[in-house]
Design brief:
5-stranded antiparallel sheet; Beta-Lactamase; 22 strands; Rossmann fold
Length: 590
């Protein structure tokens, strides 16, 4: 496949929003993404699309097959590079995929550069692996030489030539003949110096002559100028001359270069990550790697840190703590998350958030310990400052609430004292009504103050206690039975204040006039919400409100106030006169 051809990547990710964003990024980097949101869907797409070149897959895919099972199913029928892209780096997750042939394991949010570099590296490694699988090596061919000499030597990809004591060619296999770009007749019987005069006087000539003198096999690498390729020549001297195996190592050299570039990339990433990264040997807990952030944090050069342990830099108490945690990680072979640990540095004591995890060898035994530490000193200081400010704000807010509540109680008390000094019954009634209205507002305010959210309140929390508070103010409350049918829904305080005043007016009116000369009575209060329609109703079984009294012609302020407040919340209120009186308030609220 030409390098200029756009490659198709099957992206297997159950998080739809994240998958869509990642798909756009893959397109930006020149790939053609195909999305699958489950393992099952991924298998179906692989069956229907023949031009998928790589699978980029999350391990945790929600319901159905996880990433590891999906990868195993894919590899049963397909030969594709699989790169795991996951937010997990816990040991049990790593263990689940270690036996699966994969070409990358990338942690989510590592950055676009790391992800795209990992994908490019996976393609390179896969192509190199496929070429290696398809080649016969020279050594494999030599093992079968006794049985299949002629046929096998022509099938191997390496060049095989034999020379006599005078350095004249006596045998060439087909690959050698093809590489030399000459006919067999032009080569057999001629010396190597005649065929390749350019090597006379070079280092290659010297090494070839040594191979004839010593009765041992040896190999060396050189850059073979006439054919512009890197080769490895194995020399097998015998009594009749020498056999040379020319192995084209150009591709392996290129792979080596890519591997070196990948290593340099990884080194660059580690060096430039702002968090301290360190690696210790598992057997002695001595440092073998420190990045630049670690040097800056500890105030030492890398050369001063490598080969040392914690006791060389920190007080014994701190070194004991670090060492004990290291041993726990190596013993349990699990990731350890240390939320806070204190460390002495030239900048003073710093607070680190550290994660430690074991790096295992092929036998599953801890070989190294990897540590990643984030300096959270400034963040902790900011959090403490914010916490202090919040506590101060909380105290101030409590004081404000306390004063407002006291002021409302003071107003109620002033109205009571004013009433006590009056003899006019109309004035006394007006003051009682005003006091009752303020009392309903005080109940709501007290409920809001005690809630976690001052902006809204649930109806079951507010309305029952308001009803009880209003009715308990009347001498005849003991003969009245109260029925409450209240749905559970939430309203903002801006709606609850006018509703509280309306409920107060209607209940007050019922307690004053509905049960005159009665020995018992019933009040039914309901509050319902269906979709965006809210209905409040208050019904009594009393003497009933006269037909002549309406909102428009009421001489009292109470009914006028109810109608005004209903309009304020864009609702309507109706009166029914049937075996008592029923007020119904209806409005919409999303």
């Amino acid at each position: 496949m030409a390098s200029s051809e756009r490659k198709t990547i099957l992206l297997v990710e159950d998080e739809v929003i994240f998958a869509t964003a990642l798909s756009k990024k893959l397109e930006t980097f020149g790939y053609i993404p195909i999305l699958a949101h489950s393992g099952e869907e991924a298998l179906e797409l692989l069956d229907s699309h023949t031009e998928i070149h790589l699978v980029l897959m999350d391990i945790d895919l929600g319901h159905g097959m996880d990433g590891t099972k999906t990868a195993q199913k894919i590899l049963e029928n397909k030969t594709l590079p699989i790169v795991f892209h996951t937010s997990h780096f816990e040991q049990d997750i790593v263990e689940r995929v270690k036996d699966i042939t994969r070409y990358g394991y990338v942690i989510k949010n590592s950055g676009d550069f790391v992800l795209m570099s990992s994908i490019a590296m996976a393609f390179d490694l896969f192509e190199a692996h496929q070429e290696t699988k398809n080649e016969y090596t020279a050594m494999e061919a030599l093992k079968e030489l006794s049985e299949h000499t002629g046929t096998l030597l022509n099938r191997i990809t390496d060049s095989v030539v034999s020379l006599d004591k005078n350095w004249k060619y006596t045998y060439l296999n087909e690959p050698a003949l093809s590489n030399f770009k000459k006919t067999r007749e032009e080569i057999i019987g001629k010396s190597i110096w005649e065929i390749f005069p350019d090597i006379i006087g070079t280092e290659l000539e010297k090494k070839l002559k040594i191979s004839m003198q010593k009765q041992v096999s040896h190999e060396f690498e050189n850059y073979y100028e006439p054919y512009n390729m890197s080769v490895r020549i194995r020399c097998y001297p015998s009594k009749d001359g020498v056999t040379l195996l020319y192995q084209d190592i150009t591709k392996s050299k290129e792979d080596e270069k890519k591997a070196k570039e990948a290593t340099n990339l990884l080194y660059s990433v580690v060096e430039n990550i702002p968090n301290m990264i360190f690696i210790k040997r598992a057997d002695n807990l001595r440092f073998v790697l420190f990045n630049r952030a670690g040097e800056n944090l500890l105030g030492y050069q890398k050369e001063e840190l490598l080969g040392k342990n914690d006791y060389d830099f920190f007080p014994k108490e701190q070194a004991d703590f670090f060492t004990d945690k290291d041993k726990d990680v190596l013993a349990t072979r699990e990731i350890l998350d240390i939320k806070e640990e204190f460390i002495n540095t030239p900048k003073g004591t710093r607070i680190l958030h550290t994660k430690k995890l074991p790096l295992l060898d092929d036998q599953g035994k801890p070989e190294y310990l990897l540590g990643i530490s984030e300096d959270i000193t400034e963040r902790k200081a900011s959090e403490e400052k914010v916490k202090t400010l919040l506590e101060e704000k909380e105290l101030l807010l409590k004081e404000v609430h306390h004063r407002i509540k006291n002021n409302m109680l003071t107003i109620i008390s002033l109205l009571f004292l004013q009433k006590e000094s009056l003899s006019d019954s109309a004035a006394i009634t007006a003051l009682d009504d005003a006091s009752s209205r303020i009392q309903s507002m005080l109940v709501l305010y007290d409920k809001l103050y005690r809630s976690t959210d001052f902006k809204e309140l649930s109806i079951p929390t507010y309305l029952p206690s308001l009803i009880d508070e209003i009715i308990s103010n009347f001498p005849n409350h003991k003969i009245i039975k109260i029925e409450k049918n209240i749905d559970d829904f939430i309203l903002p305080s801006s709606i609850l204040f006018p509703i509280g005043i309306m409920v107060n007016e209607i209940l007050t009116n019922a307690m004053k006039y509905a049960f005159v000369d009665r020995t018992s009575g019933l009040l039914s209060i309901t509050a319902t919400k269906k979709e965006d329609v809210i209905v409040f109703s208050i019904q009594d079984n009393g003497v009933g409100m006269p037909e002549s009294i309406h909102f428009a012609n009421s001489s009292g302020f109470g009914l006028q106030l109810v109608q005004m407040l209903a309009k304020q919340i864009r609702g309507k209120v109706d009166i029914e006169r049937n075996q008592g009186t029923k007020f119904t308030l209806e409005f919409k609220f999303n």
